[in-house]
Description:
By secondary structure, the chain is mostly helical. It has one domain. It is built from 19 helices and 4 strands. It has helices at about 15-40, 45-70, 90-95, 105-125, 135-155, 180-200, 205-210, 210-225, 230-235, 255-280, 290-305, 315-325, 330-345, 350-355, 360-380, 390-410, 420-425, 425-445, 450-465; strands at about 85, 160-165, 170-175, 315. The radius of gyration is 21 Å and the shape is globular. The relative contact order is 0.21.
Amino acid sequence: xxxxxxxxxxxxxxxxxxxxxxxxxxxxxxxxxxxxxxxxxxxxxxxxxxxxxxxxxxxxxxxxxxxxxxxxxxxxxxxxxxxxxxxxxxxxxxxxxxxxxxxxxxxxxxxxxxxxxxxxxxxxxxxxxxxxxxxxxxxxxxxxxxxxxxxxxxxxxxxxxxxxxxxxxxxxxxxxxxxxxxxxxxxxxxxxxxxxxxxxxxxxxxxxxxxxxxxxxxxxxxxxxxxxxxxxxxxxxxxxxxxxxxxxxxxxxxxxxxxxxxxxxxxxxxxxxxxxxxxxxxxxxxxxxxxxxxxxxxxxxxxxxxxxxxxxxxxxxxxxxxxxxxxxxxxxxxxxxxxxxxxxxxxxxxxxxxxxxxxxxxxxxxxxxxxxxxxxxxxxxxxxxxxxxxxxxxxxxxxxxxxxxxxxxxxxxxxxxxxxxxxxxxxxxxxxxxxxxxxxxxxxxxxxxxxxxxxxxxxxxxxxx
Length: 465
């Protein structure tokens, strides 16, 4: 038996490990802090409480990442994964925020209950592996990448194309005048060009940290143009402690708990696709036991989130894309990233420094990273037998179409029951449901062994495509 560890388990020297870990933190930071920022403002919390929510989120991000990557008995997929607050929970939590009887403590209670629920149902969700042959996983991963492009494009534009304003006491959406300014687009384009140049002409370690170097170059330009501000860095304290139940003991309400448990199922099905994608990218075979440990870690991370004053956690897709870009497959990189997130949660001044990175800088990097996720899906589909089984074409075609509905027509399902919106507003979940259903309709259900063998054959074919 070879003593050489699998690339996923390779321990890198500190001088290589540290910048690679920082790179992972930078590409997820904006998404990591967005949910607590939005929820805090929706609850009209004072600025110091919103700041605490962000620090608590960063701290819990680190904990959840360590649980997932380092793992312990029965918990953790042990792949290069960074964990962050899922956007799938945002809509339901905003509804809870607007219900006076629920409020912030009710949100935390529903998150804790959903975390316990996730731990309990993880083994049952992982048994769905035979439902995910390559034609299904490739389609889902393709939709994940294409869906994420919207995030990267809006980052490059410097925010959202519309903003909400209250006029005569009535909230409404208006065009954002700061969106897609030429200066910001130029910076995003500059970051993209730096990354592409490094990927073409650099070798070894410099190539591995191309995304980080592109972000640093973008920050230098943004600071020189006066777009990167450091006032909050100076005002932030050096150290602060994140304590459990900072806002008080959570409260538990049936409907919010059921809603958040539904969100947890959505998150776990999305995570299933992420783990399978990472298995393809890293070359590690993912079996049902691995999936169970990874999904259970989602539940544990969400439980920790509720305890430490924050929200449900899931694997961040943008970091899956970063693994594909850099080719660095070691989970110890994201373990180090988890430690950095813990430090950011305890050291507000460091968190403020990372927060100062403009969105337009991250946008240039996002276009590369999110596109790599979509390319991974296309690579998996390249190994699918479309010639002898043309029905696979219909599986991909219809599932991709359904996955695009929330992206191109956000109000498409507005007249359906509100309780279904957490399910219908996730293009990833829609594509997963449709792909699984159509694959079962056309191809039937394979055994777990046949599914694993088909996945291995497709991966081998894709490598030579």
